[in-house]
Amino acid sequence: MRLQDKVIIVTGSTTGIGKAIALRCVEEGARVVIHGLEQEEGEAVAKEIGADKATLLIGDITMEDMPQRLTEAALTAFGRLDAVVNNAALVVSSNIHTTDKDFLRRVLEVNTLAPYALIRAALPHLSAAHGCVLNIGSVNAWSGEPNLLAYSISKGALMTMTRNLGDSLHREEGVRVNQINPGWVLTETEMKRKQEHGLPPDWYTKVPKVYAPAGRILMPAEIAAAAVYWLADESGPVSGQVTDLAQHPFLGRNPPKDTTTIPV
């Protein structure tokens, strides 16, 4: 039980990577605050875990009072707070022609400013517990795909925040801050997004090896397995680190021009 008795807020945990992280945390002995926008899905996750190990809060992560509400949900249900997983994110396609300032602001509000606000609200309790923050970024933080401009900008900003706070908060508050950058993950949202862009329902079974050397893309449970290390005491004093979780070296990689489809 690598997370025995820890209390962890996992934002965006009614589906996808966040749900997988919440479930894995509970398997490792933690209690969790489930959060997201989907009431029905959230109730299902909370029921699967059990009322003694999970509490549910539904709401927009950008609401002014949401950071305090999430923090209070952990304290009310379980009496303490040991870790925050900033996973909630808006994954949207855009480029320079489709990204106006209002659109970019909205993406930054969800993907960068909301995590920052939650860290601020939770900090006194994380400090008391000598706890930690795990930000869920993306390999797109390094520059990003041409059709993921706003998303890539927001994840790049999150990565810089992780490195900055990973130093300052560790020194001043005893709170570690780290980040994992997943590559391409087969979440419910990604399955739906690709179909909306014209791909067939089984698109994920035909991903060219240039994008997925293993013949498939990552699964949420594989990201959750990696998350446990950073949330557990076994990661010791390590802070301010960003780890890419992908099938190939993302930086400096030059795929051939003819990749025989998919992205979109």
UniProtKB/TrEMBL annotation:
Transmembrane segments: none annotated. CDD domains: SDR_c. InterPro entries: NAD(P)-bd_dom_sf, Sc_DH/Rdtase_CS, SDR_fam. SUPFAM superfamilies: NAD(P)-binding Rossmann-fold domains (SSF51735). PROSITE patterns: ADH_SHORT. PANTHER family: EG:BACR7A4.14 PROTEIN-RELATED, ZGC:101858. Belongs to the short-chain dehydrogenases/reductases (SDR) family. This is SDR family oxidoreductase. It comes from Compostibacter hankyongensis.
